[in-house]
Fold DUF4926 domain-containing protein.
Amino acid sequence: MTEIQQYDRVRIVTSRFEDLGVSAGMRGYVVETYPDGELEIEISDSTNGETIALFAARPADVELDA
């Protein structure tokens, strides 16, 4: 399994963040990695670049998006 790194593009694979407006299948970028293994994910609107959500996720919540 490839370790997810800062600036990787990822796809959300859980419904855990629906309260933030983020559903499974949405794509975003890792903007920070933390010592405890969590990842700071930014999801942006593809039409205007505005941030939809910025949140910490576990590696199991995302997968690399090619």
The chain has one domain: 9-64.
